[in-house]
Structures are given as structure tokens and as C-alpha cells.
Amino acid sequence: MASTSDIRNGLCIKYNHDIYKIIEFLHVKPGKGPAFVRTKLKSVTTGKVIDNTFSAGHKIDDVRVETHKFQYLYAEGDTYHFMNTEDYNQITLQKSTLDAPGLLKEGEVVTVIINSEDQMPLSVEMPASVILEVTATEPGVKGNTATNATKPATVETGAEVMVPLFINEGDKIKIETEKGTYKERIKE
């Protein structure tokens, strides 16, 4: 058993007969009344995100988890195939357990969180950022850069990302996986 003081991003808890992963939290101490913790919980079984408020000192039922490095192999419809980098065992996961499936490139190494009790994979943590090549985007117009203007670009995985006007097809860009946003252009 844990309490609200143990809440952190990535913590898996049992709540409402399901297992949820905390994706966002905020400790709030109002001037009047008791403190509380406002959280965003993502169901590891359905992928649904809910908001919940825990009062300070509330007991939460945490789930013991292990983390393992897995390499992404390929996707087959909504099923994604991964291989453990230590013992080469393969697992399949549904698209709903992935945070950013559109940014997942073949060969990418991710961290899979596994429930220690029943060895069921709960969720997949992507690296903080990924480097992908732009496969399609419209050319930028010169002189149209007075403001932070952006345009849509399709990357090699098929995901669409808003990028600055100076990005061209063939450029490699760094993308922040948590928000799916452009970070910087990578020069080789």
C-alpha cells in the first residue's frame, strides 16, 4: 500500500477494478481546506484516460512492476511485435498500450513495464525523443518566416508532425515523443 505522497509519473496503481498508469499529477494545497492530489490516469487495458482527485494521505494500491528493454520489430494491423533484448523472447502488444505508436520506428528500443505478479505487459515507455526522416512536406516559402509559422510534415513512420517552414523532405528531425512535437533538425 502506498499513499498520495508516493504518486509520481509512471506509477501503476489498482483503481476501480482496473490497472491505471499515472501520466500527470499535481499536489494542491489550497489556503482553506485539506490538501489533495489531482491526477490523470491512463487505463493500461483500454487506453482510456480519466481525471481523478485523491485527498491527501489517501491510501492507493500500487502494482509491483518490472521494466525490461524490448526492441520494436514490426506491426501487423493493431498488433505490435517486440523482442526482449536480453533473452530474445518475443511478445505482442495492442496499439492501445503504446503511448505514441505513430513515432515508433522498426529497431527502436523501448522500455516495457511488466506486472510482477502475472508477467503481463502493462505499458510501453518510449525514449524521450526519436530521430525520424521527413518523407513528405510542402516547400517553405521564402520571406514567410516573420512569425513561428509551421507546416505539416509526414515522417518515415507515417505520423504527421508540425514543423518550421525551413524543414524539407529528406531532413532528419528530433521529435519529443511525449507531446509528438518537433524539437530540432539533426545535421549529419
UniProtKB/TrEMBL annotation:
Q: Which UniProt keywords apply?
A: Cytoplasm, Elongation factor, Protein biosynthesis
Q: Does the keyword Cytoplasm apply?
A: yes
Q: Which Gene Ontology molecular-function terms are recorded?
A: translation elongation factor activity
What domain of life does the UniProt record list for this protein's source? Bacteria
Q: Where in the cell is it found?
A: Cytoplasm
Its pathway is: Protein biosynthesis; polypeptide chain elongation
Elongation factor P C-terminal domain mapped to chain residues: 130-185
What family is reported? Belongs to the elongation factor P family.
What is the protein name stated in its UniProt record? Elongation factor P
Instruction: Give the organism the record lists.
Output: Aquimarina celericrescens
Designated gene of the protein: efp
